[in-house]
Design brief:
With about 400 residues, this protein is an alpha/beta fold. It is built from 12 helices and 17 strands. β4 and β5 form a beta hairpin. The chain binds D-malate. The site of D-malate (MLT) has 6 residues, from loops.
């Protein structure tokens, strides 16, 4: 008899955003006239920038000509894109990351989920609480955690790092040393950032204890303040202890195009083994590369015009973030994030639970957000709104909330 992977049975319910989608669809079915505004999942709404669209058209045409047609992409990504990433995202920030330390993929979510495959089952993992669910769920599926405890909302065997208003949503260094540490800054869901001194402490801690940091920097382009690191490799010694994930989804609106990358420095090793060849082997075996036309579109993000247009989009979303932040603050909410990140994290009013507030907003204002508890037990009593809506919808949503 075929056997299933029983680890999947430890996962309660469905993936957070699917569960929310279902709840909202059920509500809409029962209330067909409701004009629902969705500020739940962080999905972009601005169309792809014109410079990128032009490049996409050109690349599509190339695929129709014998002389310029391309088949399988190189396993680790086209050199033109890897070089643009290395020059623009790293060398321009004095980070010594070369093109061949970059692995192009179809997005950071897949890479964050898949990276655990190159690590043994006997690693302990540490995650922030609240946390982007992919880090935990992918380790549960692999069998690296114990059972889910419905009372605490936690999995046995996982080290949870509380991120609360008291610590500015930046976790303290844990006493129990984890082997793998997931960090995400600017943070999803809280919108918090980590300054260079604090990040350096994490790098030093990882190097001292032989831990590896899995650093998700998907929201890096939303950083507006000067002293906030864009990459973990801005810290000394990070090439000896960190893997970094980046995404074009939020930077350039590629949630529907799909493009991201992972950086594994050549010197990064554990147990005397380099990690670069392991991930290269996994990539080569299980992945055929992001499509040529999408990688060309990614290259266009780094062109002068592409960059300018993409920055305009980011400014648009951050205009939304400011409207949400100020609007909520004005009507007495306790609000966080929204300055260096496209997420606004708010305390629910009147001691409502996250899901009570979700239902309340859906029913009374027809506005959808994400219940904080969906990201972990320390998210209980909080709620996340995204700045990725259209300006019109964002203004309408906040105006509706103000009248409640
Ligand atoms: C989110 O809403 O947290 C993100 O859109 C999820 C993702 O990027 O996968």
């Amino acid at each position: 008899m075929a056997k299933i992977n029983k680890n999947y049975l430890k996962l309660p319910g469905s993936y957070l955003f699917s569960a929310i989608g279902k709840k909202v669809n059920d509500y809409k079915e029962a209330n067909p006239d409701a004009n629902i505004i969705r500020l739940g999942i962080g999905d972009v709404t601005r169309p792809i920038a014109p410079a990128i669209i032009d490049t996409l058209h050109g690349a599509v045409n190339e695929m129709g000509e014998e002389a310029s047609f391309r088949g399988y992409a190189p396993d680790l990504g086209y050199e033109f894109l890897r070089k643009a990433i290395s020059d623009f995202d790293y060398k321009s920030r004095n980070c010594d990351i070369s093109a061949d330390e970059i692995f192009v993929s179809d997005g950071a979510k897949c890479d964050c989920g898949n990276i655990q495959e190159i690590f043994g089952m006997n690693n302990t993992i540490a995650v922030c609480d609240p946390v982007y669910p992919v880090y935990v769920d992918s380790n549960v599926m692999a069998g690296r955690t114990g059972d889910y405890d419905a009372e605490t909302g936690r999995y046995d065997g996982v080290i949870y790092l509380p991120c609360t208003a008291d610590n500015g949503f930046v976790p303290e260094l844990p006493k129990e040393v984890p082997d793998l540490i997931y960090l995400c800054f600017p943070n999803n869901p809280t919108g918090a950032v980590i300054d260079k001194t604090r990040l350096q402490e994490w790098v030093d801690y990882a190097n001292k204890n032989d831990s590896i940091i899995l650093y998700d920097a998907a929201y890096e382009s939303y950083i507006s303040e000067d002293d906030i690191p864009h990459s973990i490799y801005e810290c000394e010694g990070a090439k000896e202890c960190a893997i970094e994930f980046r995404s074009f989804s939020k930077t350039a609106g590629f949630t529907g195009l799909r493009l991201g990358y992972t950086v594994i420095p050549k010197e990064l090793e554990t147990e005397g083994e380099k990690l670069w060849p392991l991930w290269a082997r996994r990539h080569g075996t299980k992945y055929n590369g992001a499509p040529y036309i999408i990688q060309r579109a990614g290259e266009a993000v780094y062109s002068k015009e592409g960059r300018r247009q993409v920055m305009e989009q980011i400014a648009y979303y951050m205009g939304n973030a400011k409207y949400i932040y100020d609007g909520l603050k004005d009507c007495g909410y306790e609000v966080y994030g929204g300055v260096n990140a496209p997420y606004i994290w708010l305390k629910t009013p009147d001691k409502m639970t996250s899901w009570e507030f979700f239902d309340y907003l859906l029913k009374k204002a027809n506005v959808v957000g994400t219940p904080g508890v969906g990201f972990g037990p320390k998210g209980e009593g909080y709620f996340r709104l995204t700045a990725f809506g259209s300006r019109e919808n964002t203004l309408a949503a906040i105006d509706r909330i103000k009248t409640l």
